[in-house]
Every structure is written in C-alpha cells, then in structure tokens.
Amino acid sequence: MKMQKMLFLVSFMFLLVSSATVAIAGDFSWMRDLNIQAEADPEGFKARLRARFKVGDTEIKAVLRDVTNPADAYMVFRYGEMASKSTNQVMEKYREKKKKGWGVLAKNLGIKPGSQEFHTLKRNHDMPDVSKNNKIKLKDKGKGKSKKKNKGKS
Does the predicted model carry a pTM greater than 0.85? Predict the structure, then answer.
C-alpha cells in the first residue's frame, strides 16, 4: 500500500511538471521558427527587421551581435517599440534580465505582462512575410476588404 501511494505521488508530480513545461513552451514558441528562418536566410531576416522596425543596418548588426538568438533581436526592437524606449535602453535591460525570462524583462521596461499587447506578442510576431519574388509585404494587411472602385461606371 505504501509503495502504491509513493508511485501515485511520483506520477502526480511528473504530471504537474510536464504540464507546466508544456504551458511555458507555448509562450513565445514562435521564436524557434523565427530563429530557424534567420539562420536559413540571415540577409532576408535583416531585411525583415529593417522593414518592420524602420532601423538601419548598423543598429540591426549591433543588436544581432549582442543577443543570444536572432529572434531575441526582434524582441529587443519590439519591446523598445512597446515601451517607447531606445534600443540601447532595451539592450541594457536585456543583458541584466535575459535569464529571468521575457515577462520579467517586459515588466522592467514598463510593459504590463498582463496587457493585451503582451499576450498578442506571446502568441506570434508581426514580422513581414517575404513573397516568392523576395519583395517584403506585411502580414494580413488589407486581406478580406472589398475594394469599391468605379461602382456603377463602365
């Protein structure tokens, strides 16, 4: 009987830990794919950062040099935008807090981790897509909207 209780407790603890791991993995899980894309096409990734955040090559290269992964560069620029902070200010906090997680870093920058904007970011990034002919286009801009041109005119 004692062995069954012990086995049950161990199983229950394993279930709790694995559930927490799955829940945590869901936050910012898109970063893994963004890193893969950046490694496959570094110049394309830089172009996407440039297009999304309207920053120059020098700033992009400096951030990419100082972050752990390419997707972290996106987060640095995005957090700067969300917190109305300079890239240098965000990088300073990134160096101090990166091991504590994105939520802690956000909070230290004045971004509310419970805000709608933060929850949206946890689900996905808003980097532009690159079409087949290598022209950058923003995601979902204007899709599904009807265009009323010259209605009633021939």
Answer: no
